[in-house]
Amino acid sequence: MKRHKLDSKEKLRVLYVDHTAKLGGGEIAIRNLIQGLDRSKIEPILLSFEEGPLVDQLRSSISVHVLALKKSVATASRQSLGFASILKFGELAAVAQHIRQVAQKMRELEIDLVHTNSLKSDIIGGLAGRLAGIPVIWHVRDRIAPDYLPAKVVHVFRALSRVIPKFMIAVSEASLATTVSGSEANPSTRAAVVYDGLSAAQLAGSEPLSDAMPVRRIGLVGRICPWKGQHIFLEAASQVHREFPEVRFEIIGGPLFGEEQYEQELRDLAAKLELNGVVTFTGFVHDVPRRIAELEIMVHASTISEPFGLVAIEAMAQSKPLIATRGGGIPEIVVDQETGLLIPMNDAEAMAQAILSLLRNPVLAEEMGRRGRTRVERHFTLEQTVRDVEQIYRRVLDLQPLSERPEQMDGAVLATPSIERD
User: Fold this and answer.
1) Which of 28, 211, 310, 335 has the fewest CB atoms lying closer than 10 Å?
2) All domains of the chain, ordered by start, with CATH?
3) Across-strand partners of 191?
4) Considering the entire predicted model, what is its pTM?
């Protein structure tokens, strides 16, 4: 493969591969990364396995290609054994054919580096990259653990992580710890944590959607699915409503991957808890920051430890105090009692008490919001994310000076990272 130098006239051609074009957290993050790259040095190209909003939003600014993946593989949820269909004998022929097609597309596009962005694209895009003789970077946005993925998938993915990618980017310490074994001689040579960050426009904030008399609103943002904990949020809302009947609650987001039945269960639960008129289901919204701008308090209610939490930094960037379940990458974002409150998972009582404590003490809530904003500005900016990823590209392609040690990278934290607690 021809090597490119970042200071040459020829740009580094990086192919970003994602199995979905729906705008989940990972897709929003990779869109932001692509838009923030230094185009004088890097030419980003997107390869998606389906049409959708991600493709639509990037098509006008970069080269975009779509190679449709067999529907039964593309739509299988990571939360069920259906995800393992990618490994089942009955699907192997379709997957193998898709890998060959992707590899051929990589050769046609004269790609220098492959950057995969999801579990399915890690495997399919990663194998295609190896077949095409192109270095592969996995962007691991999941926790590779049995409480988050089927045990069979965990075993296979960890095994493949040792042979497919030349380097892995993890979105948090929590994610990295489940992917790179601490027993490895020097994990920092093949993996790093790079936190997702917000652009200058996102940090500038948004105006609320409505100019009407302000209503005290508490919201939960995220796609509707059981492990996001919307049912816990409703149970907590029922308790809070008794003391603060004027407060309104919003479930912001909709089902993305066939979880409409759970949405109906939530609506039935709201009716059972006598919250009709108190809780609003917004459905999918295009302008999440404006919705967040209307909130007094933001709640994160996941019942399984999440790898990161993009909506958490979006809320903190708008100076919103955050109540979040303790687990996964969230404690790397939220400093308990300083920028928000961390609570146990699956505990509606603890969530209700945390909400009540902030409603009773708006001065404390406002101070937490200000501290959260400062924390995002220090640790979670798109500028930092882009700089760290571009440096990783140089390392993978041997384009940086040999004297530059991996641990001297500006912002990426390697192997067992941590950031100060302000």
Assistant:
1) 211
2) 12-197+381-414 (3.40.50.2000), 201-379 (3.40.50.2000)
3) 168
4) 0.85
